[in-house]
Specification:
Blueprint lengths: L1 H11 L2 H30 L13 E18 L2 E12 L2 E10 L13 E9 L2 E9 L2 H46 L4 H21 L3 H27 L8 H9 L6 H34 L5 H30 L1 H8 L5 H4 L3 H35 L4 H13 L4
Antiparallel strand pairs: 1-2, 1-4, 2-3, 4-5
Helix pairs in contact: 2-3, 2-4, 3-4, 4-5, 4-7, 5-7, 5-11, 7-8, 7-11, 7-12, 8-11
């Protein structure tokens, strides 16, 4: 038994293995420090001074016990229905009226047993209670757990680490990017710093510490800078105010103009492009390192040429995916536009439509640019890190299979 284990123990204790372990530990410690600074230290140190917003009352959860009364009346807007419910909020029962238009576009369709969000405010007669929406977190948790389970079952350990990377990305967005922008800091600077932390964390956690991951990180960073520069030029040239949608206008009112709308639009383009760029760059880097492992005699030029054949296929599918994603999110807007009498040549000048068009075009240009940039970097790095054949090629093969193919 000891004789059978001796080769493995010697391999683990070899200078090369110990060196790799030290490198891995150093990288993970560095990533941990980045996360600690952005999601713990900065928020607790009070670096971001959040602006005061309009007080809209507190929102609590309640459960409808029973329908007390229901009345209807005819109005110029249609049939209005008023329902009065007994709603349990904590240990108290409150009678709350809810009014809706029968057949309207936004009806909650409430009945006994439903859990609701109740907004509590102060009025001339004391506290006021308003049913704002349904409680939906149960369904969200169910599908969230289903998603996590499928990722772990299919992806195994790498699926688990990818979930950790996603959780870290969410923390950076919630604890650093959003508070930083809300405090009035430059949205572009905050987004770029946050994007760098997200990239380092998600890539190293999901794909391990190796040349492939390092190349993907460099390629994604370079492509993200290109995307940010192009987005800035597009916003300036098209004279976009960043107020082309209702959410942006609402935010401007709530923060009393403390947040730059143009900077927020630029940040949205950067963050929106990050995920797709990550995918493309990892795929291209993996392709180059797999080609190198399969044939260590390939030159950097040959690696680049063959990997670009794969990249062109990826470009075609990814650009279409990005276009469809933006189209899906803007589908209600597109339906509204189809009902307008203005020709498309006129409509496209409207800011709400110009913003979506430029967002799609800039993101697509960044994706296309990422393919040759990452492929060239991967070809150079793969040739630099390994020798011709022998142990070097085996090392690349082990790294590629140990962390999975993207």
């Amino acid at each position: 038994m000891i004789d059978r284990l001796r080769p493995r123990i010697e391999a683990l204790l070899s200078p090369e293995a110990l060196t790799q372990t030290s490198v891995n530990t150093g990288v993970y410690v560095f990533v941990g420090l980045l996360l600690f600074v952005t999601v713990v230290l900065v928020p607790f140190a009070g670096v971001f001074d959040l602006p005061e917003t309009i007080d809209q009352g507190d929102t609590v959860t309640g459960k409808i016990e029973r329908l007390v009364q229901e009345t209807t009346e005819q109005t110029p807007f249609g049939t209005e229905r008023t329902q009065t419910f007994d709603v349990r909020i904590g240990d108290d029962i409150r009678q709350i009226s809810y009014r809706e238009t029968v057949g309207g576009s936004y009806n909650l369709g409430l009945e006994a047993g439903d859990e609701v969000l109740v907004t509590v405010g102060e009025g001339p007669q004391g506290q006021t209670f308003f049913i704002a929406d349904r409680v939906r977190d149960g369904s969200l948790w169910l599908f969230g757990l289903l998603f996590a389970g499928i990722v772990i079952v299919v992806g195994r350990f790498q699926g688990f680490t990818s979930l950790l990377g996603m959780a870290a990305s969410l923390l950076v967005i919630l604890r650093f990017i959003i508070p930083g922008i809300a405090s009035g800091a430059d949205p572009v600077t905050i987004s770029l710093i946050g994007a760098a932390v997200i990239l380092a964390t998600s890539l190293f956690l999901s794909h391990g510490v190796n040349g492939k991951t390092l190349t993907a990180l460099l390629g994604t960073t370079a492509s993200l800078v290109v995307t940010a520069v192009l987005a800035s030029l597009a916003i300036d040239m098209a004279h976009l105010s960043g107020l082309g949608d209702e959410d942006s206008r609402t935010l401007r009112i709530l923060t009393q103009g403390a947040i730059s709308s143009e900077g927020l639009l630029l940040s949205a383009i950067i963050i929106g492009s990050l995920g797709v760029l990550d995918d493309v760059c990892v795929a291209q880097s993996s392709a180059v390192f797999e080609l190198r492992a399969a044939n260590p005699l390939l030159s950097a030029r040959d690696l680049f040429s063959r990997a670009m054949n794969i990249g062109r296929d990826h470009i075609a599918s990814t650009v279409n995916t990005l276009f469809l994603a933006y189209t899906g999110s803007a589908l209600p807007l597109l339906v509204i536009l189809s009902l307008q009498t203005e020709p498309l040549g006129t409509l496209i000048n409207r800011e709400f439509l110009s913003t979506e068009v430029l967002r799609t075009l800039v993101g697509s240009i960044g994706i296309v640019a990422s393919v040759p940039v990452t492929t060239a970097l991967a070809a150079f790095v793969s040739r630099s890190l390994t020798g011709l054949g022998g142990a070097g090629a085996a090392e690349v093969t082990v790294a590629g299979h140990a962390h999975g193919r993207h």
